[in-house]
Amino acid sequence: MGRKWNNIKEKKASKDANTSRIYARFGREIYVAARRGEPDPESNRGLKVVLERAKTYNVPKAIIDRAIEKAKGGSDENYDELRYEGFGPNGSMVIVDALTNNVNRTAPEVRAAFTKNGGSMGVSGSVAYMFDATAVIGLTGKTADEALEILMEADVDVRDIVEEDEAVIVYADPEQFHAVQEAFKKAGVTEFSVAELTMLPQNYITLPEDVQAQFEKLIDVLEDLEDVQQVYHNVEFEE
Fold first, then answer.
1. CB 150 within 8 A of CB 157
2. Engineering a disulfide at 59: which of 54, 72, 135, 214 sits with its beta carbon 3.0 to 4.6 angstroms away?
3. What fold does the segment set 130-201 form as a domain?
4. Domain 16-72, what fold?
């Protein structure tokens, strides 16, 4: 599980490295989280989680501050959270999460992305049951045994802890995201290489080279849609 998550993150990071798209997405997500409660991360747990995730993507402070100030200013801009599920070639499965201020725009765009790239939309629940909502926390400077000891002392339960590429990756229930980070912070960890809430597939598949190219195009088209925040799938990309 860990290795596949790392590969996907690296691919996404390289894809977004030279664009402002990821900043715009975090701007929307921060704004929505700030509007749900107080625009203060110390009293708004949802906002704090988003800000912790934003740190690992190096989202500029100016973008964060602007989104929070917009929420404080009482903007009447509203976003709907939507989830679409679908199928790609050869048994591949895809989940698309969106934040949109125009549902009538988003649904047709997502459907077109699937149908024009060898996929098809599914009904709600047709794919998500094969994925697990998961908090993924990555850090360096600790071994897996040391990380486990820290979490045990803090009475924090997790699903798995693995070591890869000199980093420790912790998998936990989404509700434990904050507790895991706080336990490590109290133990002296100041930065996290990964801090993400994601949907991890219960099983991965690989695709033939030509089919993988088609599938990657489908994912690229979905990720390029303005309203799409996250795209999850069950394909392990082969280099």
1. no
2. 54
3. Alpha-Beta Plaits (3.30.70)
4. Arc Repressor Mutant, subunit A (1.10.10)
